[in-house]
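Researcher: Please generate the 3D structure of the following complex. Treat every line as part of one assembly.
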Amino acid sequence: MLNYAASRIVQTVIVLLVISFIAFLLVANIGDPLAALLSADATVNERLELIAKLGLDQPLWTRFLHFIGNMLQGDFGFSYRTQDPVANLIAERLPATVELAFVSLLITIAVGVPAGIYCGVNPNSLFGRFIMLISTAGITLPNFVVGILLIAVFSVQLGLLPSFGRGTVVDLGFWKTGLLSVSGWRAILLPAATLSTFQVAFIIRMLRTQLMEVGQSEHIRFARARGLSEARIWYVYAIKNTLLPVITMLGLQLGNIIAFSVVTENVFAWPGLGSLFLQSIQGADIPVIAIYLIFVGLVFMVINLIVELLYPLIDARVLRRQT
Amino acid sequence: MSFSFSAFKRKMLLGTIAAAALAAPLGGMAEAADFKFAGPLDAYTLDPHAVSNTLIFAVLANVYEPLVRRNAEQKIEGALATDWKQIDGTTWEFNLRKDVKFSNGNAFTADDVVFSLTRGQAGGIKANLNSIASIEKVDDYKIRIKTRAINPILPNQITNWYIMDKEWAEANNTVQPGAANNATETFANRNAMGTGPYVIKERDPGVKTVFAPNPGWWDKKTGNVDNATFFVIPNPSTRVSALISGEVDMIDGVPPQDAERIENDPKLHMQAGPDLRTIYIQPDVARDSLIFGSEKTKNPFKDLKVRQAMELAIDTGAIQKRIMRNFSVPVGLPIGKEVNGFDAALGAPVKPDVDKAKALMKEAGYENGFSVTLDCTSDRFMNDEATCLAVAASLARINIKVDPRAQPTAKWATQVNPPEYNTSLAMLGYSPATYDAHIFLTSIAATRDAKSGLGAFNIGGYSNPEVDKLIDLIGKETDQAKRTGYITQAFKLMKADVAFIPLHQLNILWGVKDNVTVVQPADLAYPLRYFTVK
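Model: Done. Output below.
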């Protein structure tokens, strides 16, 4: 077990280093931060001065080593654009994204799991087919279209929910939360629903297929032969076998939501990491983009690592295969 | 008992009189109101000296004040200076306003002005203060500014130079302006200390900025906005939705295609005024071949006839109607109507004439045309990419096969901007911050000179010694009539050379609730002190 864990952790660190390098290479070619920093009528000398100040005249590998060195010392650099420390910017925006991901996960579980089970147990019912039809829309409609539709209905037509922002935010000192105020909850509903449309549809389809498959398996047929009630067969024996992969997928999707809420955050002016990322790209704000990409890589790697470390607990055969 | 009762009555009476007295001067004016507005981008920083950027100035103009400011009609008037005069060619004397306090209660004196100049010249706005050589404090309320050369328009150049409290800056260790390579964040990045009509109550960068009134402001607001909140909503359709649903009172950056929807709403209207910015096309006339095009042995843009033909082929009226939905004004000069030095006769847009253009192409020996890449931005100005495509379609009529290359500004700028100038044909835009033609002439029309910084943004490398001579004269001439004459002459020469092919002057598009009256300056500012909510 220890061996297994150690090898996974070493792999994670190597992948992170590679991600850092690729992120750095990508952003080094993204464009000219000077365009945003210099006024239109700056002289060539001012330009050269700024290039030297920012170290943009150094060779690429020097800049990368410098970047990694600083990062290991906990110095993530300064934003070219806002002149704030990058670490602060990310820390300030993180709560909004995490809360959005959390609420959208809640919606996914509350809507997707019951609907998926219903579709799996009654695949041929009219209502089950109707759910499947809706879920096709959920998978095919792009996020920004869903968001704009929701705004058009709930903000513009009905005037029920705000179309942008986070509402009233309560500062807990280490975390600014919008989940302790009514306006915060009102503000989070639309973006969270938008972000969860794909996840809900995904979970419904996955649960349905899984349940239909399990429904055909031997132990279920055997249970049926023994004359157990249908409800007991489905809700006790069948579901147990389908929930593990669903939980694994939900965990991985959480990483996805944190990393790729960019579009939804942009539509709702949600002040999270995604909005920060887009604003930084517009300004060619290299330090912020690089750290953001590495951070997202880290989130994914950590979730992946946890899942991988959990596998032996779920299925001991994984360890046996190692030795 | 009776005594206290009469005292009570007297108090009541006094109260009524006081209320009446208070109401009288306010007669007819609406009550203090809250105001919410939203725009696509945020000011990068609150530091007025760190970066030269229109949006930063637009937000900070509510908090900080310059020596001279622009009023609702965009005319220069005294702010922290009461009056000023040019003592000799290179010296300006400013009398400062007395009894002005910063919002922390500190008195405003000449020391703050001297400090703010030093701080500004160390920061990103130094190019704006380039013409200032030195400053001298005569007494607490009088200063003299020495300019590097004879300078007749210094007051126009310093309307975005904001005065910061020296004591506050020293106490908070923010004497140095913010810079991108700072080792620590400067205090002034998120905090402000000016003398203006508002103070910053709350700031969440990239999200919102909350303004509260500055009770000790020396001047009177003509509007009634007390507390104002500026939200950043990057997505245009969300911004429009926020206005229609009533969550905000005004939005900046309305997409032209949504303007009709706002006009049709009974409670909203569009406010579309001229933007100082002019969009123009500039061909590369410096190189001997097209670096992005078919002609590798000679550069067709060096031929005046080709440039004339291009000007005649581009239908600016059609671009205005089809692309800009009438939210632009075609112009015949690369400067807008609001700019000092604009000449109405020269500024009339050129009438398209494709037959004449074809004839000119034939005379120049390019009857079968050539191909060239047009470099454009895709996220900088309203409908810039669509305009780029329309220009390409126009030029196809005279057999110039234009390949439009629209890129995000950050990417476009590395290629097109100095020192590389890597383009054969570029679509550009310029907004002269001083409202004066001279800044356009020195940075864009003058022959490129890396040493003096002249012509740094002359992307096409246009060069006419006579224009250069005139630019030099304009810089020194203190007689306004003569100076305007020189400016007109310079633009006449450039127009004859077809150095620039002007397309249009943009509009600023605000969507506003009907109960709100706003003032919309051409330099994209948000002067809240003039806004009224009924």
